[in-house]
Amino acid sequence: MGKYILKRIAMGLTTIFIVITLTFFLMNLIPGGPFMAEKAISAQAQAAMNEKYGLDKPLPVQYKNYLVNLTKGDLGVSVKQRGRDINGIITSKFPVSARLGGASILMALIVGIPLGSIAAINRGKLADNIIIVIATFGIAVPSFVLCTLLMYIFGVKLNLFPTYGLGSLKHYVLPVFALAFYPTAYIARLMRSSMLDVLGQDYIRTAKAKGLSTFVLLFKHALRNAILPVVTYLGPLLAYTLTGSFVVEKIFTIPGLGSEFIGSISGRDYPLIMGTTIFLATLIVTMNVLVDIAYKLIDPRIKLQ
Amino acid sequence: MTEPNTKIPSFHLKLTPEDFAPATREERESLVTMRESVGFWQDGFRRLSRNKIAMTSLVFILIIMFFSFIVPFFYPYNYSFQIRGAENLAPMTYSAEEQASIDAGESVFPHVLGTDDLGRDTAIRVMMGSRISLLVGLVASIIVLMIGSTYGAVSAYIGGWTDLIMMRIVDIIYTVPDILIIILLSVTLKFPLQRLANQPGFEWIQLLGVNLISIFIVFALLYWVGMARIIRSQILILKEQEFVTAAKALGASNRRIIKKHLLTNAIGTLIVTTTLQIPSAIFTESFLSFLGLGVAAPMPSLGSLASDAIKGLNSYPHRLMAPALLISAIILSFNLLGDGLRDAFDPKLKN
């Protein structure tokens, strides 16, 4: 087990290292460097800026410095928002995205798992068919389509919910719904097929033959095993919510890391793009590693390699 | 009560000479219970054609293809042409100038979906947008198919340490957050690709747009791993079979065995996985276009059309509906077609 955990952590670190390296060298493909601003700066000032940020050194040295700074947790300085370091931007903006994403993940799990289970228990009946249709549509509708439709119907036409910002609890309704719709549908599908799988197992029949109540049968015996595939989906789910929030935050003008990232792309704030990419990638990869390890711990049937 | 039946049944066979006559043709045919042998393709297509949902999706996709690849050639409007005085028209309405020529007896083709704020016909822009979406989906899937199947097959066929290392690479790529890398690439590749596009022989880059090419590059770099894993597990089973040993004994090269014997036998999986790759590619492209990282203006994409429509959502909600519904319908029908193909050609792949 220890060996597996170590291996998995080593792989995660490799991935993060690759992403950092890729990010660094891709960013250097851009000609001119970050201080080729719209306003022409004198060559002297530019040289001074380059020296200040270590950009006058050869590329391998810059790369080494960047890595050293990263190990200290320093992501560098934004070039468009003068005087703000990227760590500061992330720590001020990420909590907003985290609240939005956390609420969406929670909703996806709370709604998706029961939906899938209900569909599996009522296989072939009306409830199953309805849930299948919802889930099939759910994975086909891109988040931006859903966002704009929700905004138009509930925000503009019915005027039920506010369509921008995150001031009150009411503000969360539309963005969370939009962000959680796809994962809810996905989890419902996943849960349905794994529940069907489990319900067909011998031990469920044994439990039924023992005369256990349906409630105990489902919650104590079936659900515990059927939920395992959903656990493995947690990693991709986090990745989806973080990247999906780019669109949702843009549409609902939520001041989170997602809209900051999109802003940094259109504003060509390269250090900020780089820092955010590395931060999000590290988060996702870490989550994947944790989920993999948790999965092995939860399910003793999986052979440890 | 009636009298009991006193007749004793006879145990003698009552035979007539007719019983010994040779069987007629119909009788002989009815005895043949064995079905005609059905080939792999025939069998699959028969199963597919019975699947109503999949067939409906297929017909829908073909209709969309007709509208996005053929209709634009003889459509009276152009996707980038700005008609003066025809800005912001509602569906099926005409500008003052057009109305005047209609009154003069000329026929003017209606703006079925209205026009945008620059006076461009929305219907043709939606058609061109779905053309881009379909193209991205198809090309990206072909890239994924070629790289993924070759990599997976080679890894499984060689086995041993090579397989271990190749699969470790796949594991690592699998965990790289793809959307982030796509965004990163379209941001950073812009300048080098633009520089390349100015060189003779590379003008086509400008035509496709730098962002579109970065999307393809990312698909080639990252998205093939899922395909490689699936194909590898198929080839691992196939390579133990006798026909591979036979081919080896006959002196076939490794290349030939992989191409002719292994991949050909995994064709069902290849078709299904490729089809299911299409909607995911379309999804990604529309996501990026929506964020402004997709195709270059004035070329529209369903994602960028939806993005543009948001700005005027209060006054012109109809502009959002066509691209939004179309992109969902395209992704949905490819998903359903893929499911149908899986049930028809590769039932084992389910779950």
Largest sheet of chain B: none
Query: What percentage of the residues of chain B does DSSP assign to strands (E)?
Result: under 5%
Distance between the ends of chain A = 8 Å
Number of domains of chain A: 2
Short description:
With 305 residues, chain A is mainly α.
Description:
The complex is a heterodimer of chains A (305) and B (351). The model of chain A has no long low-confidence stretch (mean pLDDT 83). Chain A has 2 domains: 2-71, no CATH class; 86-298, MetI-like fold (Orthogonal Bundle). Chain A is flat, with a radius of gyration of 24 Å. The relative contact order of chain A is 0.14. Chain A has helices at 2-27, 43-52, 59-71, 86-121, 126-138, 143-157, 169-199, 202-209, 214-226, 228-251, 257-266, 270-298. Chain A is built from 12 helices and no strands. With 305 residues, chain A is an all-alpha fold. Chain B is an all-alpha fold and 351 residues long. Chain B has one domain: MetI-like (MetI-like fold, Orthogonal Bundle), CATH 1.10.3720. Chain B contains 15 helices and no strands. In chain B, helix 6 (160-174) runs antiparallel to helix 10, helix 11 (242-249) runs antiparallel to helix 12 (254-265) and helix 13 packs antiparallel against helix 15 (318-345). Chain B is flat. Chain B starts with 24 loop residues before the first helix and ends in a 6-residue tail after the last helix. The model of chain B has no long low-confidence stretch (mean pLDDT 81). At the A-B interface, helix 1, helix 6, helix 10, helix 11 and helix 12 of A face helix 6, helix 7, helix 8, helix 13 and helix 14 of B.
In terms of topology, how is this protein built?
The complex is a heterodimer of chains A (305) and B (351).
Chain A: H1 2-27, H2 43-52, H3 59-71, H4 86-121, H5 126-138, H6 143-157, H7 169-199, H8 202-209, H9 214-226, H10 228-251, H11 257-266, H12 270-298
Chain B: H1 25-31, H2 40-50, H3 52-74, H4 96-103, H5 122-158, H6 160-174, H7 178-188, H8 190-197, H9 204-208, H10 210-238, H11 242-249, H12 254-265, H13 267-290, H14 302-311, H15 318-345
